[in-house]
Amino acid sequence: MGLKLLVTGAGGLLGSAVAKIASDRHTVFSGFRRRAPKFGNPVLMDLLNLERVHRVVLTLKPDAIIHAAALTDVDKCEAEKRVATKVNYEATKTISAAAARAGAYLLYVSTDAIFDGKRGMYRETDRPNPINHYGLTKLMGEEAVGAARGKSCIARSSVIYGSKPAALKDNFAVWLIEKLTAGQSANIVTDQFVSPSLNSNVAEMTLELTERSLTGIYHTSGCSRVSRYDFAEALAATFGLDASLIRAVRMNDMKWTARRPRDSSLDVRKAMSSLNHVPLLLGDSLVRLKTEYREAGRKIGRRQARGRATGS
């Protein structure tokens, strides 16, 4: 018998992939704020309305919750700290408390941004030290999950990307593919290192953790540590695009509001040894992305702006 599963942020990049996969074997309730998600039973769930968030969880009484909703725009979090704190921390605290009260398993989707980026290849046991408000609020969310003392898991990923826009925003892969297809140059940093994570791969790991009710902390990113620039070049090569349009810049050249970790790559050995669905190498992920891009019916080029790319 399947789970009664609540997925927050089911219209987002990761949440939509989780809802799609989970719908085949579970009863999925898909939390959303603006547009009803394609998969699952839509449930209006604005994280700024904490009272409603609490009521939704206690009314549904799900077996499990995958809390994927968040404000992930790093610069917006820095500029609008109050909103970021409410969405990423206070809503997570509310959901954690309600989940514990309802006896629901909770998986909280977190991020590599909780680390300062001084050395990279962070393990689950390494001490967090965020250097921007986004990372701070996500770490506060992790702490709220632990404080609720319910059955829970924290799953951290890095630079999640996928085959199509979600929540009215492009992700890094779609943004770069369509920019290069249009013959436009793209400035990509050479000195920032991450563990790019294909959303469908992360969704598989996230769902497996939930179905098995595993607890603790897991790093569920891709298993390749690469610079943003190398990631962009590999993406261009896979899609047969003109890599000469990718312009190498340094982090100091970027006009970011918030500081970024220089190396927030994640060590995924725990996930590799514990899960059946394991983190993919970048090359394998990009081949899969190309297939998913075609299956989504996306044509290279002819694009209308949907907002800024995420994950920068």
Structural summary, described in words:
The structure is a single chain. The chain is an alpha/beta fold. It has a domain at 4-158 and 199-219: 3-Layer(aba) Sandwich (Rossmann fold), CATH 3.40.50. Helix content is 38%, strand content 17%. It is built from 10 helices and 13 strands. A 7-stranded parallel β-sheet has the order 3-2-1-4-5-6-11, with helices on both faces. Strands 7-10 form a two-stranded parallel sheet. α1 (13-22) links the parallel β1 and β2 (27-32). α1 (13-22) crosses α7 (199-211), α2 runs parallel beside α4 (81-102) and α4 runs parallel beside α5 (133-148). The longest helix has 22 residues, at 81-102. The termini are far apart. The model is unreliable at 301-312 (pLDDT under 50).
Per-chain topology:
Layout: E1 4-8, H1 13-22, E2 27-32, E3 41-44, H2 50-60, E4 64-67, H3 74-79, H4 81-102, E5 105-111, H5 133-148, E6 152-157, E7 160-161, H6 172-181, E8 186-189, E9 193-194, E10 197-198, H7 199-211, E11 216-219, E12 226-227, H8 228-238, E13 246-249, H9 269-274, H10 282-295
Parallel strand pairs: 1-2, 1-4, 2-3, 4-5, 5-6, 6-11, 7-10, 8-13
Antiparallel strand pairs: 9-12
Helix pairs in contact: 1-7, 2-4, 4-5, 8-10
